[in-house]
Protein backbone atom coordinates (compact mmCIF):
# COMPACT_ATOMS: atom_id res chain seq x y z
CA UNK A 1 0.00 0.00 0.00
CA UNK A 2 1.50 3.37 -1.01
CA UNK A 3 1.64 6.40 1.27
CA UNK A 4 -1.10 8.29 -0.56
CA UNK A 5 -3.65 5.52 -0.14
CA UNK A 6 -2.59 5.00 3.48
CA UNK A 7 -3.36 8.70 4.13
CA UNK A 8 -6.69 8.25 2.37
CA UNK A 9 -7.72 5.26 4.45
CA UNK A 10 -6.68 7.03 7.66
CA UNK A 11 -8.85 9.94 6.55
CA UNK A 12 -11.73 7.51 5.93
CA UNK A 13 -11.54 6.34 9.54
CA UNK A 14 -11.67 9.96 10.73
CA UNK A 15 -14.67 10.65 8.46
CA UNK A 16 -16.52 7.75 10.05
CA UNK A 17 -15.57 8.84 13.55
CA UNK A 18 -16.95 12.34 12.92
CA UNK A 19 -20.20 10.92 11.51
CA UNK A 20 -20.56 8.64 14.51
CA UNK A 21 -19.77 11.33 17.06
CA UNK A 22 -21.86 14.24 15.78
CA UNK A 23 -24.17 12.68 13.18
CA UNK A 24 -22.94 14.75 10.24
CA UNK A 25 -19.96 16.40 8.60
CA UNK A 26 -18.74 13.40 6.62
CA UNK A 27 -18.64 15.13 3.25
CA UNK A 28 -17.02 18.21 4.81
CA UNK A 29 -13.94 16.06 5.36
CA UNK A 30 -14.31 13.61 2.48
CA UNK A 31 -14.31 16.06 -0.44
CA UNK A 32 -11.25 18.16 0.64
CA UNK A 33 -9.41 14.95 1.56
CA UNK A 34 -10.00 13.44 -1.89
CA UNK A 35 -9.21 16.69 -3.73
CA UNK A 36 -6.23 18.14 -1.87
CA UNK A 37 -4.52 15.06 -0.41
CA UNK A 38 -5.37 12.32 -2.89
CA UNK A 39 -5.47 14.45 -6.05
CA UNK A 40 -8.95 13.62 -7.36
CA UNK A 41 -10.76 16.28 -9.36
CA UNK A 42 -13.80 17.85 -7.63
CA UNK A 43 -16.36 16.06 -9.83
CA UNK A 44 -14.90 12.64 -8.99
CA UNK A 45 -14.42 13.61 -5.33
CA UNK A 46 -18.04 14.69 -4.91
CA UNK A 47 -19.19 11.45 -6.56
CA UNK A 48 -17.08 9.33 -4.19
CA UNK A 49 -18.33 11.44 -1.27
CA UNK A 50 -21.94 10.60 -2.16
CA UNK A 51 -21.20 6.89 -2.02
CA UNK A 52 -19.21 7.05 1.23
CA UNK A 53 -21.73 9.28 3.02
CA UNK A 54 -24.66 7.21 1.71
CA UNK A 55 -23.20 3.90 2.86
CA UNK A 56 -22.19 5.17 6.30
CA UNK A 57 -25.57 6.88 6.76
CA UNK A 58 -27.27 3.55 5.99
CA UNK A 59 -25.47 2.06 8.99
CA UNK A 60 -26.48 5.08 11.07
CA UNK A 61 -30.11 4.70 9.98
CA UNK A 62 -30.19 1.12 11.24
CA UNK A 63 -28.76 2.16 14.60
CA UNK A 64 -31.25 5.02 15.00
CA UNK A 65 -34.14 2.78 13.92
CA UNK A 66 -33.32 0.35 16.73
CA UNK A 67 -33.84 3.26 19.14
CA UNK A 68 -37.14 4.25 17.50
CA UNK A 69 -35.74 7.54 16.17
CA UNK A 70 -36.54 7.19 12.46
CA UNK A 71 -39.88 8.25 10.94
CA UNK A 72 -39.81 6.32 7.67
CA UNK A 73 -43.09 7.75 6.38
CA UNK A 74 -41.92 11.38 6.58
CA UNK A 75 -38.38 10.44 5.56
CA UNK A 76 -39.49 8.66 2.40
CA UNK A 77 -41.98 11.43 1.54
CA UNK A 78 -39.19 14.01 1.80
CA UNK A 79 -36.75 11.72 -0.04
CA UNK A 80 -38.71 11.52 -3.30
CA UNK A 81 -38.22 15.11 -4.52
CA UNK A 82 -34.74 15.20 -2.98
CA UNK A 83 -33.33 12.09 -4.64
CA UNK A 84 -34.99 13.11 -7.92
CA UNK A 85 -33.08 16.41 -7.79
CA UNK A 86 -29.82 14.74 -6.70
CA UNK A 87 -29.96 12.14 -9.47
CA UNK A 88 -30.81 14.64 -12.20
CA UNK A 89 -28.16 17.12 -11.05
CA UNK A 90 -25.45 14.42 -11.03
CA UNK A 91 -26.62 12.86 -14.30
CA UNK A 92 -27.24 16.02 -16.33
CA UNK A 93 -26.38 19.27 -14.50
CA UNK A 94 -22.84 18.58 -13.24
CA UNK A 95 -21.55 17.00 -16.51
CA UNK A 96 -22.92 19.94 -18.51
CA UNK A 97 -21.50 22.77 -16.41
CA UNK A 98 -19.14 24.71 -18.73
CA UNK A 99 -15.40 24.21 -18.13
CA UNK A 100 -15.01 28.00 -17.95
CA UNK A 101 -17.69 29.68 -15.84
CA UNK A 102 -16.33 33.22 -15.89
CA UNK A 103 -13.24 35.09 -17.02
CA UNK A 104 -12.09 38.65 -16.48
CA UNK A 105 -8.68 39.88 -17.61
CA UNK A 106 -6.27 37.20 -16.31
CA UNK A 107 -8.72 35.70 -13.81
CA UNK A 108 -10.57 32.59 -14.89
CA UNK A 109 -13.21 30.76 -12.84
CA UNK A 110 -13.21 27.13 -13.96
CA UNK A 111 -15.82 24.46 -13.36
CA UNK A 112 -13.61 22.73 -10.77
CA UNK A 113 -12.92 26.01 -8.95
CA UNK A 114 -16.62 26.86 -8.99
CA UNK A 115 -17.60 23.51 -7.44
CA UNK A 116 -15.02 23.84 -4.66
CA UNK A 117 -15.92 27.46 -3.88
CA UNK A 118 -19.63 26.61 -3.79
CA UNK A 119 -18.79 23.66 -1.55
CA UNK A 120 -16.82 25.99 0.74
CA UNK A 121 -19.75 28.42 0.99
CA UNK A 122 -22.04 25.56 2.00
CA UNK A 123 -19.39 24.57 4.56
CA UNK A 124 -19.62 28.09 6.02
CA UNK A 125 -23.37 27.65 6.50
CA UNK A 126 -22.79 24.25 8.08
CA UNK A 127 -20.14 25.69 10.38
CA UNK A 128 -22.43 28.48 11.56
CA UNK A 129 -25.20 25.97 12.30
CA UNK A 130 -22.79 23.86 14.37
CA UNK A 131 -21.11 26.72 16.23
CA UNK A 132 -24.25 28.43 17.44
CA UNK A 133 -26.91 26.70 19.44
CA UNK A 134 -29.93 26.38 17.21
CA UNK A 135 -33.13 27.58 18.85
CA UNK A 136 -35.69 25.81 16.73
CA UNK A 137 -39.26 26.24 17.86
CA UNK A 138 -41.55 23.33 17.08
CA UNK A 139 -45.09 24.26 16.10
CA UNK A 140 -47.32 21.21 16.38
CA UNK A 141 -50.38 23.15 15.26
CA UNK A 142 -49.01 23.76 11.80
CA UNK A 143 -48.48 21.14 9.12
CA UNK A 144 -47.38 22.44 5.76
CA UNK A 145 -48.79 21.30 2.44
CA UNK A 146 -46.88 18.56 0.66
CA UNK A 147 -46.13 20.73 -2.37
CA UNK A 148 -44.05 22.97 -0.08
CA UNK A 149 -42.11 19.92 1.06
CA UNK A 150 -41.71 18.87 -2.57
CA UNK A 151 -40.21 22.25 -3.55
CA UNK A 152 -37.95 22.28 -0.48
CA UNK A 153 -36.81 18.73 -1.25
CA UNK A 154 -35.95 19.71 -4.83
CA UNK A 155 -33.92 22.71 -3.64
CA UNK A 156 -31.94 20.82 -1.00
CA UNK A 157 -31.48 17.86 -3.34
CA UNK A 158 -30.00 20.08 -6.05
CA UNK A 159 -27.48 21.55 -3.60
CA UNK A 160 -26.64 18.06 -2.35
CA UNK A 161 -26.09 16.86 -5.90
CA UNK A 162 -23.82 19.74 -6.81
CA UNK A 163 -21.48 19.47 -3.84
CA UNK A 164 -21.67 15.75 -3.13
CA UNK A 165 -22.70 16.32 0.49
CA UNK A 166 -25.11 14.37 2.65
CA UNK A 167 -26.91 17.59 3.54
CA UNK A 168 -27.78 16.66 7.12
CA UNK A 169 -27.32 20.24 8.30
CA UNK A 170 -30.03 21.25 5.79
CA UNK A 171 -32.42 18.34 6.28
CA UNK A 172 -32.52 18.39 10.09
CA UNK A 173 -33.86 21.98 10.41
CA UNK A 174 -36.28 21.26 7.54
CA UNK A 175 -37.68 18.20 9.31
CA UNK A 176 -38.09 20.10 12.59
CA UNK A 177 -39.51 23.32 11.16
CA UNK A 178 -41.53 21.94 8.26
CA UNK A 179 -42.40 18.37 9.27
CA UNK A 180 -42.72 19.14 13.01
CA UNK A 181 -40.50 16.27 14.13
CA UNK A 182 -38.78 16.36 17.54
CA UNK A 183 -35.05 17.11 17.20
CA UNK A 184 -33.77 13.60 18.02
CA UNK A 185 -36.20 11.99 15.59
CA UNK A 186 -35.32 14.60 12.93
CA UNK A 187 -31.64 13.63 13.22
CA UNK A 188 -32.51 9.93 12.80
CA UNK A 189 -34.98 10.57 9.96
CA UNK A 190 -32.47 12.75 8.11
CA UNK A 191 -30.18 9.73 7.83
CA UNK A 192 -32.66 7.76 5.70
CA UNK A 193 -33.02 10.80 3.40
CA UNK A 194 -29.24 11.18 3.19
CA UNK A 195 -28.81 7.47 2.46
CA UNK A 196 -31.33 7.44 -0.38
CA UNK A 197 -30.22 10.75 -1.88
CA UNK A 198 -26.52 10.00 -1.76
CA UNK A 199 -26.67 6.49 -3.19
CA UNK A 200 -29.16 7.38 -5.94
CA UNK A 201 -27.12 10.49 -6.74
CA UNK A 202 -24.08 8.26 -7.07
CA UNK A 203 -25.97 6.13 -9.62
CA UNK A 204 -26.15 9.25 -11.78
CA UNK A 205 -22.34 9.40 -11.71
CA UNK A 206 -21.67 5.77 -12.62
CA UNK A 207 -22.78 6.43 -16.19
CA UNK A 208 -20.49 9.47 -16.54
CA UNK A 209 -17.38 8.55 -14.53
CA UNK A 210 -14.88 5.71 -14.36
CA UNK A 211 -15.10 4.54 -10.74
CA UNK A 212 -12.04 3.11 -8.95
CA UNK A 213 -14.10 0.52 -7.11
CA UNK A 214 -11.37 -1.18 -5.04
CA UNK A 215 -10.25 2.09 -3.47
CA UNK A 216 -13.81 3.36 -2.99
CA UNK A 217 -15.08 0.18 -1.31
CA UNK A 218 -12.08 -0.05 1.03
CA UNK A 219 -12.43 3.66 1.87
CA UNK A 220 -16.14 3.17 2.59
CA UNK A 221 -15.58 0.04 4.68
CA UNK A 222 -13.05 1.86 6.86
CA UNK A 223 -15.49 4.78 7.22
CA UNK A 224 -18.16 2.36 8.44
CA UNK A 225 -15.72 1.00 11.03
CA UNK A 226 -15.12 4.61 12.04
CA UNK A 227 -18.82 5.38 12.44
CA UNK A 228 -19.29 2.33 14.69
CA UNK A 229 -16.38 3.45 16.86
CA UNK A 230 -17.71 7.02 16.85
CA UNK A 231 -21.19 5.94 17.95
CA UNK A 232 -19.63 4.03 20.86
CA UNK A 233 -17.39 6.96 21.88
CA UNK A 234 -20.34 9.39 21.67
CA UNK A 235 -21.60 7.89 24.93
CA UNK A 236 -18.60 9.38 26.73
CA UNK A 237 -18.08 12.68 24.86
CA UNK A 238 -20.27 15.78 24.95
CA UNK A 239 -21.84 15.99 21.51
CA UNK A 240 -22.62 19.71 21.84
CA UNK A 241 -19.02 20.68 22.64
CA UNK A 242 -17.68 18.40 19.94
CA UNK A 243 -20.09 19.81 17.36
CA UNK A 244 -19.05 23.39 18.20
CA UNK A 245 -15.35 22.49 17.92
CA UNK A 246 -15.93 20.74 14.60
CA UNK A 247 -17.91 23.77 13.42
CA UNK A 248 -14.90 26.00 14.06
CA UNK A 249 -12.67 23.51 12.22
CA UNK A 250 -15.15 23.45 9.32
CA UNK A 251 -15.12 27.25 9.09
CA UNK A 252 -11.30 27.27 8.97
CA UNK A 253 -11.38 24.59 6.26
CA UNK A 254 -13.89 26.59 4.22
CA UNK A 255 -11.71 29.71 4.38
CA UNK A 256 -8.69 27.62 3.38
CA UNK A 257 -10.51 26.13 0.37
CA UNK A 258 -11.63 29.56 -0.87
CA UNK A 259 -8.12 30.96 -0.42
CA UNK A 260 -6.51 28.00 -2.21
CA UNK A 261 -8.95 28.12 -5.13
CA UNK A 262 -8.66 31.86 -5.85
CA UNK A 263 -4.87 31.96 -5.58
Textual characterization of the structure:
This protein is mainly alpha-helical and 263 residues long. It has one domain. 75% of the residues lie in helices and 3% in strands. The chain contains ten helices and two strands. It has helices at 3-22, 26-37, 42-66, 72-93, 111-131, 146-163, 168-177, 183-206, 213-233, 239-262, and strands spanning 100-104, 107-110. Strands 1-2 form a two-stranded antiparallel sheet. A hairpin with a 2-residue loop joins strand 1 and strand 2 (107-110). It is globular, with a radius of gyration of 18 Å. The protein starts with a helix and ends with a helix. The model is unreliable at 137-141 (pLDDT under 50).
Topology (elements, then pairings):
Elements: H1 3-22, H2 26-37, H3 42-66, H4 72-93, E1 100-104, E2 107-110, H5 111-131, H6 146-163, H7 168-177, H8 183-206, H9 213-233, H10 239-262
Antiparallel strand pairs: 1-2
List keywords for this structure.
263 residues, mainly alpha, two-stranded antiparallel ribbon, 2 strands, 75% helix, 3% strand, globular, TM_pro_TauE-like, transmembrane, transmembrane helix
Structurally, how many domains make up the residues? Answer: 1
SSE string, helices as H and strands as E: HHHHEEHHHHHH
Query: What global shape is seen?
Result: globular
Side by side, the strands of the main sheet go 1-2
Low-confidence stretches: 137-141
Average pLDDT metric: 81
> How many extended strands?
2
Radius of gyration: 18 Å
In terms of structural class, how would the helical and strand content be classed? Answer: mainly alpha
Oligomer: single chain
Q: How is the biggest beta sheet arranged?
A: 2 strands, antiparallel
What is the share of helical residues? over 70%
Strand content: under 5%
Distance between the termini: 33 Å
Number of distinct helices = 10
Amino acid sequence: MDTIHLIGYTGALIVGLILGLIGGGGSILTVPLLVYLLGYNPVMATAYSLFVVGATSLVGTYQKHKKGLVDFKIGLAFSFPSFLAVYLSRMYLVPNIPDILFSFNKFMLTKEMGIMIFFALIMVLAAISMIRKAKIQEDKKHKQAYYYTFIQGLAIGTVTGLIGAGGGFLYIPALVLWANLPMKKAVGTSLIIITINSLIGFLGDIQNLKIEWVFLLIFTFISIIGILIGVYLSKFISGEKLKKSFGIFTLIMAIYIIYKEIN
